[in-house]
Amino acid sequence: MKRVFYNSLGTEEMYGLIREVMPAGYKLVTLETDEDEERCQKIQNCEVAIVAAKPMTSSIIKAAGALQLVHHQGVGYHDTVDTQSLIDSGIRLALTPAGTTIGVAEHTVLLALAAAKRLAFADSELRQGRWHINSLRPVSLEIHGKTVGYIGFGMIGQAAAERFKVFGTTGLYFDPYAAPDKARDERLGVKPAGFDELLVDSDIISIHTPLTEDTHHLISFDQFEMMKPTAILVNTARGPVVHEQALVMALSSGQILAAGIDVFESEPVSPDNPLCCLENIVMTPHISAGTVDALMGKMRSLFENVERFFRGEPLENEINLTD
User: Fold this and answer.
1) 267 and 146 in one domain?
2) 127-186: per-residue pLDDT in tens?
3) Catalytic-residue membership of 238
4) Which residue among 267, 304, 308, 318 is the active-site one?
5) Which of 208, 238, 243, 244 is catalytic?
6) Is 286 an annotated catalytic residue?
7) Do 177 and 162 share a structural domain?
């Protein structure tokens, strides 16, 4: 019986969904608290660990005496796995692109639409008896005819572009790792652009880049100054890609029109975070890939890969930790 440790605290209902797709011969080891002390105790005899948003730190990895494989249930491992500790312990790492792309792309469009129409504020005000039938018109936009700028143009950025195009948008993308593809770009209605050009010309700026040393605070005070006063910023990637204090200033001063944010510099978000006081932001708690469809798709793909691992076959979507 192989033991699989789930590093994030979930609900019994969620754990039950994971167990539904686990192959025979595996046992899911779960948490009752969100304390690292419990993580270190429960991971000790587990051969596999599944990582989601909760980071797998060096202390947890060092406590894992039987661990052979860490499998991220998404793709953003840079800020969630201590890769040096994996290297030191000879533990392999694989990712799960399946199941992430559609949910995040749909959520990106959702946040853009909601921010453009001040949806969260309108809903809150209506529930308190305030009827903003006309007062939101001057600050509400349609996304038809707008230019969407994609910072990062991998699978998720491209899926978002495909969905935005249905609304009649055109697009720019900046991604030093994505080579231009004429047929793809024509199909999606996008073209490559320089980083500054994208910031200046885009009506909606959507972030789809991992968190690395190079992308930390990629969007900060200077970048907000370059954006249109009617611009909408959407972030479904990683919170620290955006300097949160700069975002607060840009939104509160009218430097940009609105934002739709699913990820934050510190999670969970404190109620006294100044973003919570702003009318022109829509916020969700890191749930862009948080659907039952995504979870089941991820887990099926993940356990197929785990089975490959124990059969001695090549892993799919493995990260080469020696590079």
Assistant:
1) yes
2) 999 999 999 999 999 999 999 999 999 999 999 999 999 999 999 999 999 888 999 999
3) yes
4) 267
5) 238
6) yes
7) yes
